Amino acid sequence: AQSVSQHNHHVILSEAASLELGCNYSYGGTVNLFWYVQYPGQHLQLLLKYFSGDPLVKGIKGFEAEFIKSKFSFNLRKPSVQWSDTAEYFCAVKPLIYNQGGKLIFGQGTELSVKP
Amino acid sequence: GAGVSQSPSNKVTEKGKDVELRCDPISGHTALYWYRQSLGQGLEFLIYFQGNSAPDKSGLPSDRFSAERTGGSVSTLTIQRTQQEDSAVYLCASSLNRPGGPRTDTQYFGPGTRLTVL
Predict the structure, then answer these.
(1) What is the pLDDT of residue B70?
(2) Secondary structure element (H or E) that encloses residue A72, with its range
(3) Nearest chain B Cα to A101, which residue?
(4) Domain positions in chain A
(5) Is residue A59 over pLDDT 70?
(6) Least Cα separation, residue B42 to chain A (angstroms)
(7) Helix (H, G, I), strand (E, B) or coil at A29
(8) Which fold would CATH assign to domain B5-112?
(9) Cα(B100)–Cα(A102) distance, integer angstroms
(10) Count H helices, E strands: chain B?
């Protein structure tokens, strides 16, 4: 069965620290990859996505992620976090069974707490 | 423009009652998805509608769950004879899914309906 694993359940950082959140998936075919963020009291928002091409993708608010196909990974990074980055982060994978559309398979989420 | 909207934002019901949750997708989006977010289970796919095609119901947890999408727009998720384990946040998402050209199937999520079954 297809699955997505996020290694860290809760990460606590001080402001200006660097962030890396791990995400691995199990699916042998072509995938689309996403990171979504859920700020406290808000709904899920798209942070960045990978469809094809350059495996290093940049998203909003200084976030980036790198797709490493050989490792089935799509880790999220930010060089310097801010208190406002406190949120829950979800990695999601969409197996390309269809040309477009289809369900997302989510990881369990990583709660990030940034201390001011 | 307007995003995905869901109603009600909160719903408290008694065990055994039926509930209906509504989703209004982004105008023009052809695909609509329902997910459930609960402690311990994370975000789970429930059902996916694409245009006039038969929906993908593979994520519905039991036959107490059903969903409709009328006129290719608004969708209603119905849970019959609710159980306490149905308590969760039910999320709706939509995507454009225009065939051909650049990919347009990024999913945009609504605020969710928090369902509490007493």
Answers:
(1) 85
(2) none
(3) B105
(4) 3-115
(5) yes
(6) 5
(7) coil
(8) Immunoglobulin-like (2.60.40)
(9) 16
(10) 0, 10
